[in-house]
Amino acid sequence: MTDGILVKELIANRDEIGSKYGVLMIDEVHERSILTDVILGLLKQIIQNNNNNNQEGNKMRIVITSATLDPTLISSYFSNCPILRVEGRNFDVKVYHSTNDLVWFSFHLSFYIN
Asked: Between 3-12 and 34-52, two packed helices, what is the crossing angle to 10 degrees?
């Protein structure tokens, strides 16, 4: 679902969110927006309310992913939650440069025509 729909869902069903979803995955957190920040704030409140009310039955998992964000910041925000690191892979990239400006122009022009 989109971040806007998730915000509405978190606000409307705050008390039932743990039983409605087993896992919430917030992807690309480093591409922050106001909605991402609101989602993280609402999730923290929901977790704190569940812990204060001793709601053990519904163990919703939250997975937050980011390629570049410092994971210790997110972990400390969520009461020092565990950090799982998954190493990515790099692939060789070959760069070709054209000496002909017409090739560059026709390449960009094709996007506007199609």
From this structure: 30
3-87 is a CATH 3.40.50.300 domain: yes
Q: pLDDT by residue (tens digit) across 30-78?
A: 888 899 999 999 999 888 887 666 555 557 889 999 888 899 999 999 9
Domain residue limits, the chain: 3-87
Residue 75 CA to residue 71 CA, distance in Å, equals: 6
Q: Which amino acid does the sequence have at 11? A: I
Q: Which residues contact 61 (CB under 8 A, 6 or more apart)?
A: 22, 23, 24
Q: 3-state class of 105 per DSSP? A: helix
Say how many residues make up the chain.
114
3-state percent breakdown (helix, strand, coil) of the chain, nearest 5: 45, 5, 45
Q: pTM (2 decimals)?
A: 0.68
DSSP one-letter code for 80 = S
